[in-house]
TrEMBL record:
Entry keyword set: NAD, Oxidoreductase
Entry protein name: methylmalonate-semialdehyde dehydrogenase (CoA acylating)
Species whose genome carries this gene: Lichtheimia corymbifera JMRC:FSU:9682
GO molecular-function terms, A-Z: methylmalonate-semialdehyde dehydrogenase (acylating, NAD) activity
Family the entry assigns: Belongs to the aldehyde dehydrogenase family.
CDD domains with a match to the protein in the record: ALDH_F6_MMSDH
Domain (Aldehyde dehydrogenase) ranges: 55-517
Gene Ontology BP, a term: L-valine catabolic process
């Protein structure tokens, strides 16, 4: 089915520009991630988007794009060549110079049109996400919607980018306004193929920059569709470019002097590398990394509501959310609730994302499935209790899919591998403590600080938790506390590198630099022509 979508979109139109016909010339080192696929395959190829054109890559290395529910080969993603990466940069550099001259009002109009077009194409985008990423159609629409909210924030740039002015002495004013940086870049993970690109390029472009996006090589389709919509909304050629690939493409972005800032979301290893390499090259880098999000269940919690919320947040999206509640801390007698939680989890239907009955789809790759199953086994081997085992699940009609059913490990200890690693699959690890203080201590000792939640009916308990917990996003009876813009995504400690958060005011600040001007226009000069010989006192 996706082949049909790909064929009907300009993704598959081989727009042959002079750029695409350029001779292949690169001495890039061997790639670590690309499977070496010959372009003799019949699968459609994913294009680069350079200077407003969908351009066939001249790559000699291609990455296979599979439907995780079926293993159907959906397309081939190029490891864009060095020439193509340079061409994208050249185009973005030239476009940034002109785009920054446009007014905030003009850019606001473009963003208003973009938000309208995304809304119109919500289902088409969501269907592509189901095919490439595997999540359910409803959840995929949520993926687009949460990104759309950032486009809506970008529409408010006329007030959010407003400067400041103060009279600092007689006839002297200092004023501050924020200027764009020039060329910016975004590097995306696979788990939110629409939302995370939309955290990045709309705010950067609204602020007057150009942007080079590198979507995840595992599901680039939504980004390609968004590029088409951006062009239709009036984003000029070169203001948004898309290149593809993995390690070498990313390293190019880290090293290319014309690129002034990098937004990254993804795993710890890649993020640490990009942050260090980008910083070493003098770039501004914001990097959101991995997570291990704990939910605390207090004995006074509304049991039914808490168990429902936890099952949804632990197993929804097959656990592949950076804010998934992957770790449960049961306080006191609430450990007796675990069998009931397992019952709820068992009722969740695992299957193909377009099936309206499905609650959770496959994980992204066979390797991700194999890793999750191995980590579950490591828990068992280290003494945890396997309360619910979702390994080896087979979905009728989708026997080749990377499915893992909801899995619960209880009696987990903090030294076990299944606790220390981010599993990124529908696997919930449960620990027990006697008091709230112990729960807080346990969570604060974990290196990650992305999100946490407490389930309680006590205001004072919630208040104590909120103040003492060292995690950037706190939910109170709210399982996935991802703030909407105009707040920012405020993961902390090991879940972030860099000081400026995604979206919200901080998001716009990341893509701009402040300039202050101190201006002296003496009113007296309008009427007096004599020089003053006295010492200036301002
Ligand atoms: P990933 O790190 O494998 O990939 C992210 C991007 O980095 C991709 O574009 C990829 O091409 C590139 N990349 C991967 N390895 C690289 C390397 N060695 N050198 C240079 N570039 C490299 O992440 P993923 O598996 O796509 O996404 C899942 C991860 O993202 C999870 O850890 C999840 O917690 C995290 N995530 C975090 C947030 C957040 O806001 N904190 C949001 C979503 C996802």
């Amino acid at each position: 089915m996706l082949s049909a979508i790909l064929k009907s979109s300009s993704l598959n139109r081989a727009a042959q520009s002079p750029l695409a016909r350029r001779a292949f010339s690169t001495n890039l080192p061997m790639l670590q991630q690309a499977s070496q696929v010959k372009q003799t395959s019949q699968a459609p190829t994913v294009k680069n988007f350079i200077h407003g054109e969908m351009v066939e890559s001249q790559a000699n290395k291609w990455i296979e794009l599979h439907n995780p529910a079926t293993q159907e080969l959906l397309g081939l993603v190029p490891e864009s060549t060095l020439d193509e990466l340079k061409e994208a940069t050249k185009s973005a550099e030239a476009a940034a110079k002109e785009w920054k001259k446009t007014t905030a009002l003009h850019r606001q109009r473009v963003m208003l049109d973009l938000q309208y077009l995304i809304r119109q194409n919500m289902d088409r985008l969501a269907e592509n996400i189901v095919q490439e990423q595997g999540k359910t159609f409803v959840d995929a629409k949520g993926d687009v919607f949460r990104g759309l909210q950032v486009v809506e924030q970008a529409c408010a740039l006329t007030s959010q980018l407003m400067g400041e002015k103060l009279t600092v002495a007689k006839d002297m004013e200092t004023y501050m306004y924020r200027e764009p940086l020039g060329v910016t870049a975004g590097i995306c993970p696979f788990n939110f193929p629409a939302m995370i690109p939309l955290w990045m390029f709309p705010l950067s472009i609204a602020a007057g920059n150009s942007m080079i996006m590198k979507p995840s090589e595992r599901d680039p389709g939504a980004m390609m569709m968004l590029a088409e919509l951006a062009a239709e909304a009036g984003v000029p050629k070169g203001v948004l470019n898309i290149v593809h690939g993995s390690v070498d493409c990313v390293n190019f972005i880290c090293d290319e002097p014309a690129i002034k800032a990098i937004s990254f979301v993804g795993s710890d290893n890649a993020g640490k590398h990009i942050y260090t390499r980008g910083n070493a090259n003098g770039k501004r880098v914001q990097a959101n990394l991995g997570a291990k999000n704990h939910a605390v269940v207090m004995p006074d919690a509304n049991k039914q509501a808490a168990l429902n919320a936890i099952a949804g947040a632990a197993f929804g999206a097959a656990g592949q959310r950076c804010m998934a509640l992957s770790t449960l801390v049961m306080v006191g007698e609430t450990k007796e609730w675990l069998p009931e939680l397992a019952e709820r989890a068992k009722q969740l239907k695992v299957g193909y994302g377009m099936d309206p009955e499905t609650d959770l789809g496959p994980v992204i790759t066979p390797q991700a499935k194999e890793r999750a199953e191995r980590l579950v086994q490591s828990g068992v081997d280290e003494g945890a209790n396997l309360l619910l085992d979702g390994r080896g699940i087979v979905v009728k009609g989708y026997e080749k899919g990377n499915f893992v059913g909801p899995t619960i490990l209880s009696d987990v200890k903090t030294n076990m591998e299944c606790y220390r690693e981010e599993i990124f699959a529908p696997v919930l690890v449960c620990l027990q403590v006697d008091t709230l203080d112990e729960a807080i201590e346990l969570i604060n000792a974990n290196p990650y600080g992305n999100g946490t939640a407490i389930f309680t009916n006590s205001g004072p308990v919630a208040r104590k938790f909120e103040h003492e917990i060292d995690v950037g996003q706190v939910g109170i009876n709210s399982p996935i506390p991802v703030p909407v813009p105009p707040f920012s995504f405020t993961g902390s400690r090991g879940s972030i590198l860099g000081d400026m958060n995604f979206y919200g005011k901080s998001g716009l600040h990341f893509y701009t630099k402040p300039k202050t001007v101190t201006a002296l226009w003496r009113e007296a000069d309008a009427t007096h022509s004599r020089s003053s010989v006295a010492m200036p006192t301002m």
